[in-house]
Design brief:
UBR7; 12 helices; EC 2.3.2.27
Length: 370
């Protein structure tokens, strides 16, 4: 099942599967949240997709966040800021902060949610530069990366360090949070992703300041290891390895499992509001994987892929051409929303496909080939 375009052999199945992967990535954030029911009854949700409504709670007032379902049902057509995901948040929709709006999905709410944490993100501002995204006045192409502690989004050029490859598989803690919780620098010296300068040193065979994945414990700690549990953080601090304590820090996959979980460290993390760092399920990657799994279970077997084998070559080529045309038009359609900073609703998508259906009916009424 192949077609040749510009001397490149393209499998129709490959085209569809590649697009399915993109759709899975785009929908992972939303699929991990409930789009039909307000999340308020669940309490402070471990992680969920959130929005802030600039129409109902503009800058100058109190910050508020609404869940995915309320963004669709209660705030359709409003000016919304997409906040990606936040941890331990309870939906504010319709509470005291919304003087002229009542939640349609779960109107009975407390006046406020005292444990919610807010930032300038809830007014559409991000990074240390406190600019909107997308920023109409910023022509520099730059990626936004979320800090796993404060959950603010920062421009790559404002991190104070080089952005490593495969950043989507890593977690980042911004410089401000590292300096606020200075004990994290001891972990960074041993666990953090190495920057380009450090990698160059090691390629030349020079000894680096950071110990990479190697954790050296003092001999006294090693000798008593079986007799009594030791504090991993204290051992790292006593090892005396240093790292440049500036700029954001990137952490590799699985780094949380290597943090010390002794009783002393648990108390320290709880006091700093960082207990979530000991929970691998708290990561955005774990949330997205859960969303992808939910999406796959809902979709089940796709009859389209099976039906392709029953088409002749001409029909297959026609589908490829039509599919590529639709992808181009859909991309142009979505770009208008991105340019205006608007959230795409289910009605917008439905309207797009209705327009496509009308175009096909008009085309079918004319000659088969132009």
């Amino acid at each position: 099942l192949y077609a040749n375009f510009e001397e490149q052999t393209v499998s129709l199945v490959d085209v569809l599967e590649e697009d399915e992967e993109l759709e899975e990535e785009a929908s992972a954030v939303l699929a991990g949240s409930d789009s039909d029911h307000c999340s308020y009854p669940q309490g402070y949700v471990k992680r969920q997709a959130l929005y802030a409504c600039n129409t109902c709670t503009p800058q100058g007032g109190e910050a508020a966040g609404v869940c995915l379902a309320c963004s669709y049902t209660c705030h359709e057509g409003h000016d919304l800021f997409e906040l990606y995901t936040k941890r331990n948040f309870r939906c504010d929709c319709g509470n005291r902060k919304f003087s002229e709006l009542q939640c349609k999905l779960h109107p009975e709410k407390d006046d406020t949610n005292s444990l919610n944490k807010y930032s300038h993100n809830f007014f559409g501002l991000y990074c240390t530069c406190r600019r909107p995204y997308p920023d109409p006045d910023d022509q520099v192409q730059d990626e936004m990366i979320q800090c796993v502690v404060c959950e603010d989004w920062l421009h790559g050029r404002h991190l104070g360090c080089a952005v490593p490859d495969c950043v989507e598989m890593q977690e980042m803690i911004c410089e401000s949070c590292m300096n606020q919780h200075v004990f994290l620098w001891a972990y960074a010296a041993h666990l953090a992703v190495q920057g380009p300068a450090l990698q160059t040193k090691e390629e030349k065979g020079e000894q680096s300041e950071a110990g990479g994945d190697e954790v050296v414990e003092p001999s006294c700690k090693r000798s008593r290891q079986e007799a009594e549990p030791s504090c991993r953080l204290k051992a790292l601090q006593e090892a005396g390895q240093k790292t440049d304590q500036s700029g954001a820090v990137f952490w590799p996959s699985g780094w949380r499992s290597r943090l010390c979980s002794c009783s002393t460290c648990q108390v320290q993390l709880a006091g700093a509001g960082l207990s979530f760092l000991l929970d691998e399920a708290d990561t955005v990657l774990a949330y997205e994987n859960k969303g992808k799994s939910n999406e796959q279970r809902q979709q089940g077997h796709d009859p389209l892929m099976s039906a392709l084998d029953n088409l002749n070559r001409v029909q297959q080529l026609e589908i490829i051409h039509g599919y590529n045309d639709m992808k181009t038009e859909l991309k142009d359609f979505l770009q208008t929303f991105a340019a205006e900073g608007k959230v795409v609703t289910s009605d917008d998508i439905r309207q797009f496909f209705e327009q496509q259906s009308r175009k096909r009916r008009r085309a079918d009424s004319g000659p088969f080939f132009s």
